[in-house]
Design a protein that fits this description.
By secondary structure, the protein is of the alpha/beta class. Helices cover 41% and strands 13% of the residues.
């Protein structure tokens, strides 16, 4: 999945590898002494999950967690899980998988894309479990709107104001406040408790409910932050953690926004370098000239939007999302060419097909999940934001300097969370996870959504961090890049072995 970039700038927001003693078969987990669970948490940690058949051969269950882990005797929420059972009689336990977002459904990810999520060897030796974190999907959800039309209006509603004018800011402020209030009214107290620390506590509880003494975990994109936060809070319960497409937990909201802007700008250049060598490319000249053409197109749409067949407006913000979505995967670059070609001919529909995929909007106009709502709600609790318009302006200027094509449309990302009902409960900081043991961190050099520098930073922070670098384009690398990456990850998950050094795949 992906770490999303919010449409209106309201918020951020694939050679063999040498392993140390990696030969031989699967190594079983050692026996662990019973863990001590505080009495007030016992009803949750000791609950028995009722697994029922679902999704053509898998099993589904629902766990109960406290709304607030600081008040376990209070209200409760539900957490949805799906399990693909190991086919080996000597299974290693469970492997929990988070696809990212935040706000992406782990249940849907495993149910619909098991072979994409993990290798066949992992499926054989682990019960692979997808889960919807609190606030997400089939778990007790965040709800902010009553209709698809309301979400359409929030994401891509028309405006007659000039970007960065007082009228434009006033309109954004109104829209942000209205959306934030809608989330509060429709979600209730849960809105204060969808932060990643709470989700990490849920994950520890889920580990216990399936009978595992240690957590084995694969996190993609935002899932790397959840995994790192888990390792920080429950280092003694860490088993084998793999974090692919890593976030840097020490990065602020603006730093995330800035580095993603730079990352997508680099990915756009890589796409254009490929496009201009391909027949039918709608751009001409050098890569620099093609980048200028993209910038001109965005500026034109900002001034004179196109209209899709359903009446939605394709302005610069929506077009940016249509560009960003295919940049997650080089296999989708040909579709991006179709988007650019169609827009040049005055046709907005292919662009909106890209936007709709990004925001999980179906062909019937209905949203398939609450991923956008959950994304915003989780980020607003995970990242403190400034409420100072002067600081926003300074940040906007830096974005324009360092990512001149994409950056201007990623600015002022703190505005939505500045109107949020609850303040952030996390602060950016380095995560050491002392005592957690070995953790694999994977970074792709051309990853636009989670830039490679973040993987390097996280691997360096973690006491037991081991970096796996993949030289290539696209978002995340395990099971979708090359044997070098796959062998390193499977060697760790199946045998507990880590590369002697970064294999530089």
């Amino acid at each position: 999945m992906k770490m999303k970039v919010a449409l209106k700038g309201l918020i951020l927001t694939v050679a063999a590898v040498t392993l140390t003693a990696c030969s031989g078969g699967v190594v079983p987990e050692p026996d662990k002494s019973p863990e001590a669970i505080p009495a007030e948490y016992q009803p949750f940690y000791s609950q028995t999950l009722e697994w029922t058949d679902c999704h053509d051969g898998m099993q589904c269950a629902t766990a109960v967690a406290p709304l607030d882990w600081n008040e376990p005797a209070g209200e409760t929420i539900e957490l949805a899980l799906v399990r693909h059972s190991a086919t080996s009689s000597k299974k290693l336990g469970s492997l929990f998988v988070n696809p990212g977002g935040p706000g992406a459904s782990g249940v849907s990810f495993i149910a619909d894309s098991l072979d994409y999520a993990v290798s066949g060897a992992v499926q054989k030796n682990y019960d692979v479990i997808g889960f919807d974190p609190r606030g997400v999907g089939a778990s007790t959800p965040v709800v902010c709107v009553d209709s698809a039309a309301e979400m359409d209006e929030f994401l891509s509603g028309a405006t007659d104001t000039v970007r960065a004018s007082p009228e434009w800011f006033a309109e954004r402020e109104r829209a942000s406040a209205e959306f934030a209030q809608g989330c509060l009214e429709r979600t209730g107290d849960l809105l204060a408790h969808v932060d990643t620390v709470s989700a990490a506590h849920d994950l520890d509880m889920l580990r216990a409910t399936v009978g595992d003494r240690e957590l084995n975990y694969l996190g993609y994109s935002y899932g790397t932050l959840l995994g790192a936060v888990y390792a920080e809070n429950f280092p003694g319960n860490v088993g084998r953690l793999v974090l692919d497409g890593a976030l840097d937990p020490a990065s602020s909201s603006f730093e995330v926004n800035l580095n993603q802007s730079i990352g997508f700008e680099k990915a756009l250049r890589a796409y254009l370098a490929d496009c201009i060598e391909t027949e039918g490319c709608p751009f001409s000249g050098s890569v620099d000239e093609a980048m200028t053409q993209v910038g001109d197109l965005l500026a034109q749409l900002d001034e004179s939007p196109l209209y899709a067949s359903d009446g939605r407006v394709l302005g610069a913000d929506a077009m940016l999302t249509a560009i960003i979505a295919p940049l997650y995967n080089p296999d989708a670059w040909s579709f991006l060419t179709d988007v650019f070609s169609a827009v040049a001919d005055g046709d907005a529909q292919p662009a909106y097909s890209s936007v709709d995929w990004y925001y999980s909007r179906g062909d019937d106009g209905e949203y398939l999940d609450n991923s956008t709502e959950a994304f915003l709600a989780i980020n607003c609790l995970d990242y403190p934001v400034t409420k100072d318009p002067e600081q926003w302006e300074k940040e906007a200027q830096e974005l324009a300097r360092k990512a001149p094509v994409i950056g201007p449309y990623m600015a002022y990302g703190d505005e939505l969370c500045s109107k949020w009902a609850y303040p952030a409960v996390m602060t950016p900081h380095k995560i050491l996870a002392q005592g957690a043991g070995d953790i694999l961190v994977i970074g792709t050099t051309g990853d636009p959504a989670t830039p490679y520098r973040w993987a390097k930073a996280l691997a360096a922070q973690l006491e037991g961090g081991h970096l796996i670098s993949y030289t290539g384009e696209g978002h995340t690398a395990y099971n979708k890049s090359n044997s070098c990456v796959n062998d390193a990850v499977d060697g760790f998950l199946l045998r507990g072995k880590v590369p002697a050094q970064d294999p530089k795949c």
